[in-house]
């Protein structure tokens, strides 16, 4: 089971070193940390599996503020999150650019967590499946690709999708694209088991609860226990 911690724009190199020294993931879980760009080097030196939070579709070029697969690979980074809803919402990320970033990263040997998910209004008006269909259409199956289903209304809000709702959305995604699907949206030690036990939930993308070693470790331990049973 894959459990990824998205640190967003938190933790510089010093706090990253402290976290990595204290973090010891249980066996049987693919635990991934996703620090901000400036902390990637410190995180890689900490010996854990490290993903970036974004990656560009060109090998190099005049793309101020972006980072390439080549630079990430040189740093020892193993993958990247692509298309997080905060990138879509605040930085103009589109389905098209998500598709370009994902295809290029996979081609160059990075693993990718591609994020999809509907806004609250879209769910309310019955558009969830249309939104997911459009977001998934730019992705192609690949052994190093996983999708994270993150209903936007559940990210950083404390509102979690019910396990049944997550299961239903994951099954829909898998009917279009045969890759593992993580759930993301206010996953915490208290609700991790109910979500991870669902047959179509193959792991979690964790934001807030990944910032503390104790809570992230507790979620990883739940995943390890469920993987053994
Ligand atoms: C995220 O950032 O991908 C996320 C799911 O955040 P949170 O767990 O804080 O809702």
Provide an overview of this structure.
The protein is of the alpha/beta class and 229 residues long. It contains ten helices and eight strands. Helix 2 links the parallel strand 2 and strand 3 (49-52). The longest helix has 16 residues, at 213-228. Bound molecules: phosphoenolpyruvate. Phosphoenolpyruvate is lined by residues 6, 8, 150, 155-156, 184-187, 205-209.
The set of bound ligands, ions and cofactors reads:
phosphoenolpyruvate
Q: How many strands?
A: 8
What fraction of residues sit in β-strands?
Answer: 15-25%
Structural class: alpha/beta
Q: Enumerate the strands of the largest sheet in spatial order, edge to edge or round the barrel.
A: 1-2-3-4-5-6-7-8
Rg computed from alpha carbons, rounded to a whole number of angstroms? 16 Å
Average pLDDT works out at 97
Order of helices and strands: EHEHEHEHHEHHEHEHEH
What spatial form do the alpha-carbon principal axes imply? globular
The end-to-end distance, rounded to whole angstroms, is 12 Å
User: What assembly state would you assign to the polypeptide chains in this entry?
Assistant: single chain
The major β-sheet equals:
8 strands, parallel, barrel
How many distinct helices?
A: 10
Low-confidence stretches: none
Question: What's the helical proportion of residues?
Answer: 40-55%
């Amino acid at each position: 089971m894959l459990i990824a911690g998205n640190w967003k724009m938190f933790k510089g190199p010093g706090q990253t070193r402290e976290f990595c020294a204290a973090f010891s993931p249980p066996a049987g879980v693919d635990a991934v940390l996703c620090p901000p760009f400036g902390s990637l080097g410190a995180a890689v030196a900490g010996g854990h599996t490290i993903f970036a939070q974004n990656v560009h579709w060109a090998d190099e070029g005049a793309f101020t503020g972006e980072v390439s697969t080549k630079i990430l690979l040189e740093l020892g980074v193993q993958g990247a999150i692509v298309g997080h809803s905060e990138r879509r919402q605040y930085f103009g990320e589109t389905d098209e650019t998500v598709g370009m970033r994902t295809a290029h990263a996979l081609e160059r040997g990075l693993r990718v967590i591609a994020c999809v998910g509907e806004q609250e209004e879209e769910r309310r008006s019955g558009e969830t499946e249309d939104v997911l269909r459009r977001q998934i259409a730019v992705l192609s199956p690949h052994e190093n690709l996983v999708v994270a289903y993150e209903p936007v209304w559940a990210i950083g809000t404390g509102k979690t999708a019910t396990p049944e709702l997550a299961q239903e959305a994951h099954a829909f995604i898998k009917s279009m694209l045969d890759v593992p699907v993580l759930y993301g949206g206010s996953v915490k030690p208290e609700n991790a088991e109910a979500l991870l036990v669902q047959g179509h939930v193959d792991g979690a993308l964790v934001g807030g609860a990944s910032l503390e070693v104790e809570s992230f470790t507790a979620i990883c331990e739940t995943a390890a226990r469920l993987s053994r049973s």
